[in-house]
Amino acid sequence: MTMDTKNSIQWIEAAKTVLKVESDLGLCKHFGWNRNVTANIRQGAKSLNNNEAKDIAEALHVNPLQVIADAESERARDEKSRVYWMHAAKKYAGIVATTTLVFMCTIPSTSNNFSIKNEPTILYYVK
Q1: How many Å apart are CA 54 and CA 15, to the nearest integer?
Q2: Rg of the chain on CA atoms, in Å
Q3: What is the pLDDT along the chain (127 residues), one digit of tens a residue?
Q4: Has this prediction a pTM greater than 0.70?
Q5: Measuring CA to CA, how many Å separate 12 from each of 2, 4, 8, 56, 85?
Q6: Which one, 18, 90, 99, 110, has least CB within 10 Å?
Q7: Mind giving me the DSSP string for the chain?
Q8: Cα–Cα distances in angstroms (integers) from residue 113 to residues 101, 104, 109, 116, in the given order
Q9: Taking the mean position of all CA atoms in its chain, how far away is CA 119?
Q10: How many other C-beta atoms can be found within 10 angstroms of the C-beta atom of residue 12?
Q11: d(CA 73, CA 95)
């Protein structure tokens, strides 16, 4: 895969790392998946479905549409579809970073516990 897309195995490995789960079986148990899900993905019999992609996206704090689009590009049967989903995955990854930044900068706090300190603002860009 190109254009910074990930295949299902790469998403699974990323989730295992973030969740500190050592085995595929442990990941399946964590998400409540059938224990054959990761084995079937590793064997090339399937790719992540939308619910599995959502679970991984939530664990990794990424846009679920990015993981879904990557899985769709992996499932695509023709080059035109594959390219479409690869572009979509990249677009969805950028939308989350931009939306999060705009949301953080434009919504005032209504909490009484909010105080402004003389500390530098740290801004993170996620690609």
Answers
A1: 12
A2: 18
A3: 444 779 999 999 999 999 999 999 999 999 999 999 999 999 999 999 999 999 999 999 998 999 998 998 898 889 998 888 878 777 777 654 444 444 444 445 454 554 445 555 555 555 5
A4: no
A5: 18, 16, 6, 7, 19
A6: 110
A7: --TT---HHHHHHHHHHHHT--SHHHHHHHHT--TTHHHHHHTTS----HHHHHHHHHHHTS-HHHHHHHHHHHH-SSHHHHHHHHHHHHHHHHHHHHHHHHHHHH-----TT----S---------
A8: 22, 17, 9, 10
A9: 31
A10: 22
A11: 18
Determine the distance from the C-alpha atom of residue 108 to the mean position of all C-alpha atoms in its chain, rounded to a whole number.
Answer: 28
| pLDDT for 55 | 97
117 is written with which tokens? 């300190």
> Do the Cβ atoms of 67 and 55 come closer than 8 Å?
no
| Distance (Å, whole) CA 111 – CA 37 | 43
Tell me how far apart the alpha carbons of residues 107 and 5 are, in angstroms, rounded to a whole number: 31
